[in-house]
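note to self — DONT lose this again. spent like an hour looking for the file last time. sequence + predicted structure for the chain T wanted, 149 res
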Amino acid sequence: MDLRPAAVLEADAARIDELRRRRDSMAVTTRIRMVDQPPEGLLPLSLFGRTPLPDRAALHPRSMETVAPDIAGLYVDYMTRIAMGAPKRVAFRIPLLGARLVGQGKYAESLLSRMVDFAFPSARAACLLLDFDAASRRGPDYAGAHRLD
């Protein structure tokens, strides 16, 4: 039994939580929410210039989207790791683990083998593999929430 005053216990628990938060990985959006910045932003807009860029391709309607926003975000995250030099097996470790948890290890390995570059077939295989990310992080019941087929 810890006999320290409640305020000391709470402060100690808060310190431990903060250390854990700094040590453990977290989503970028979670980290951004933790950072305070002034209402006008960290840098004044007057420091920036405007450079209009021609948009040669119009956006397609949202109804034609085939990849859920969370999978698209994961795709950018995981493929950035590969672009920065991580081996694809290391970068996709969590989805591979999720696939094994739900008995889809062979399928996941076949998806991983189809990822050879950043072209559409590889992107499709990566997005299908990323569908197992939730199974690893949240449990097997969350595998396959998104289907591209």
